[in-house]
Amino acid sequence: LSPRVPWQSQTSGQYQRRVHGLRESQNIVVLTGAGISVSAGIPDFRSKQGIYKRLKRDFDLPEPECMFDMHYFRQIPDLFYSFAHELWPSAHVPTPSHYFMKLLDGKGKLLRNYSQNIDTLEHRAGISKEKIFHCHGSFLLPNV
User: Fold this and answer.
1) Which residues have a Cβ under 8 Å from the Cβ of 46 and sit 6 or more positions away?
2) Which residues pair with 32 in a beta bridge?
3) DSSP assignment letter at 140
4) Distances (CA, A) of 74 to 66, 90, 118, 144
5) What is residue 110's three-state secondary structure?
6) Cα–Cα dist 70/66, whole Å
7) How far separated are the first and last CA of the chain, in Å rounded?
8) Which of 40, 80, 116, 137 has the highest Cβ tally under 10 A?
9) Annotated catalytic residue, options 71, 92, 123, 136
């Protein structure tokens, strides 16, 4: 589905073409970011209620991105740990979007999921681990 066309405004023909495309396609690549996990209760980074806004308000950092910077982590690891528990995957369950990717995987159609998320909800949904590439590392596989 096109992110520029709201779901409700799509005609039946547009919807049917997309469904047909998914049924006929093999080797589907899915790119995911923070938005896929918001309905699981994990905040995104850049919205008005996002993580960066909160970090700027609640922590004494030059920039909110410093919370996730290896330099700051090595100097003050307690800073990261004081916040990371809010993102810890055990407190959240996969969303319908995660289970949709699991469905694609189960049908042999998912070639790869390139995820910007660190929450590991793709793994909890049961998507084959060899199909997931964590662009920024994750709680399972750090990328340092």
Assistant:
1) 52
2) 115
3) S
4) 11, 25, 19, 12
5) strand
6) 8
7) 34
8) 40
9) 136
pTM of the model: 0.75
Going residue by residue through the chain, which has 144 residues, state the pLDDT in tens, using 9 for 90 and above: 445 555 556 677 888 888 888 889 999 999 998 889 888 988 888 888 888 888 888 888 889 989 888 898 999 999 888 888 777 767 789 999 999 999 999 999 999 999 988 888 999 999 999 999 988 877 776 555
Tokens 């982590």 belong to residue: 73
Nearest Cα to 28, choosing from 127, 121, 137, 138? Answer: 127
Active site residue 136: yes
